[in-house]
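Dear colleagues,

As part of the handover before I leave the project, I'm documenting each prediction I ran so the next person doesn't have to rerun anything. This entry is a single chain, and its sequence is reproduced below.
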Amino acid sequence: MKNVIFFVFIAINATFIFGQEVTPDIQNKKRLKASLLKSPIVVDGKPDENEWKNAEAATGFITFQPDNGNPAPYEKRTEVKVLYDDDGIYIAAFLYDDPSKIVKEITERDKFGTSDFFGIFINGYNDGQQDFRFFVSTAGTQMDCIATESGEDYSWDGIWHSNVALTDYGWTVEMKIPYAALRFSEQKEQIWGVNFFREIRRDRQKFTWNRIDNKIGNTITQAGILEGIRDIKPPTRLFLIPYSSYYVNNNKASGTNTEFKAGMDIKYGINDSFTLDAILVPDFGQTAFDNVVLNLGPFEQQFNENRPFFTEGTDMFNKGSLLYSRRIGGSPSTSPDVGENEEIQQYPSRINLINAVKISGRTSKGLGIGVMNAVTEKAEATIRNSETGAIRSEVVEPLANYNILVLDQRFRKNSSVSVVNTSVIREGAFRDANVSALLFDLNTKANTYNLSGNVKFSHVTDFGEIKNGYTAYLNFGKTSGNYRFSTNASYISDKYDINDLGIIFMTNYHNFTFNGSYRILNPNKTFNTFKISTITYTELENVTGKPQEASLEFNLETTDKKNHYFGAGFLVSPFETFDFYQPRKDGRFVYNPKYMFNWIDISTNYNYPFALDANLFVDFYDQDKRRNFGIRISPRYRFSDQFTLIYAIDWNRQNNEKGWVDFDADQIIFANRNRNTIENTVTGKFSINSRMTINLKARYYWSYAENLTFLTLTDDGYFLPNTVYNENQNSNFKIWNFDLSYSWWFAPGSQLSILYRNNAIHTERRLNKNIIDNLEHTLSNNLNNTLSISFRYYIDYNNAKKWFKT
């Protein structure tokens, strides 16, 4: 508890020192005045209406990359104009260039590809904290995201309109962004942060209207000012997205069956700042497949979230890293009690989601509020008595309610203090959990130094047993200039547990980290970009003080004058360390030898029709000729602006690895084993146009582990030979996934998609080292086929009113 008090004391004082209110310096920011639209215009990519001719123009773009700070060449100049009415804002961009050199690959939404593009960054509160970013490519493809200093979230999709046109002097863009796609205050006169962005892809040149100085880590605060928008009366923000889906499933075991689903998503603007999103009767049948692997370690495999509701606009809910949304609707939290002569006949692989709701937004004072709630249904396992044949059911997951609340106060355009709470409440005498966190992220006015940290507390009631745990983290760093550094420390208690709604693998340790780096900010004669960095890391187990990790890392990353990437690095662990998780028994540990990890990365310029990504790594261990090595090669070829094909092969070999295999009475059995993994993937896309795409993704993953000799783990973490244990613990794991889909965005927010999917998964103890035989065996016995058609239609309440009036 003393550790927590110390961290809280530091946080309070740092908040006072870093966070005193200072009037933002906007004297050097560019300003643009939006003009009121007095007569209708057509968003056709040809801004030739008289309204555009009289509007004020944003000019004088500045290079962002690679020659940061230099004016854009006159022959590549850009002019942007903004209009507004009660529906939204309108943008016209005139982009000068040689028309014969403009690249325009057609891609699906949110994929930039090999195309020039134009974008606008909008911050409705002008608080330097969050942008809504809208891009359109020369091929007409839309890309959009919500951006914070932690990154860009392209899972968010706004509803807006755009068109482009090629001209004899370059190309032009027209955009209409409805107010419903933005967030801003209720002030009579709007003052927005805004920046305009342009990339000329063939030269990898990027330009912005208001200069972004790459000496400063924070880019959002370096926006210009959009003024002139006043007395607007935004329409009601109510959107209904009904859907229907039809599935045909087939496999050898169950034959053919069909399934129909229908439901609705609702988006409602509670006011100009807050939005409610609800999903009723969810359907996630067309989400991307998971890249499942052979997992021989002590921790579960973590998967990406592919369900749109849990990926769109969830930046606020990810603060504090307490949300792993795959818990919602994931596997059951318990296993059934199986008696003598009983076996589990059916166990649910996942829990059905009943509904989910989230509310998020930010007040004019900078207070962000996010609330998410989801409810999952009860699930049962079926148990059969092998002697009597009797069948019984047992609840393995009760009706459960998942909640997350976030309060995030932003100030001085670049700092914030947040409070986060998550809870999982299960019906009946099942496990409940509650986690709370205090976070702070403080930056100096010039964005040169950062102080951040957190304190988190978990409270779990597990079938009557109460477990309380905590963690604390503190980081200080220099975030600008050629030389940058950060140093941090954290402490995690043994009972800290967020795994009901979050994910954490290791607890009961404290660590220390130092990062240092040097980078060039402008190109030199050899490199467009150049960065070297070093990281030192030490991690100690709390009770014994034994080191769990001790490493020194060095990395080099460069881009040459032709925009080919090269990276290399090594990590060395010069001391023996100890793993307290691999033995899978409290109080036991296994030693890890000294080792060195080395890697090389190459990625050629994607602007060329043919490009290649390659990676090579080698691990050397100070233990029984133990080695790991692997290579990844991924060629890609762009046959045309419409068709691209990418192949990748990953091969990884682990020799003389030491891994856990079993318990034998009071002994913990490890194996000295060889492991071989080969993964082949093929992805392709054919874009009929910017709204209609055919996509292909195929993956065949094969991994086997062959136990050579068995070992007994000693109390001091080392091994003795075991010649008695003779169980077959070899692993041979194969998985095949194939997706072929057609997607048509026939109207803004409205989509028709057709998906054909087949997949198979097979695991066995029998070793077969022929990759083709394994694939044939997997497909012949375990193949599942699915054909699905999904239709979603976006209904704007304001348009619907006009339909009924008509």
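Residues 2-19 form the longest helix (18 residues). The chain has a mean pLDDT of 91.

All the best with the project,
I.
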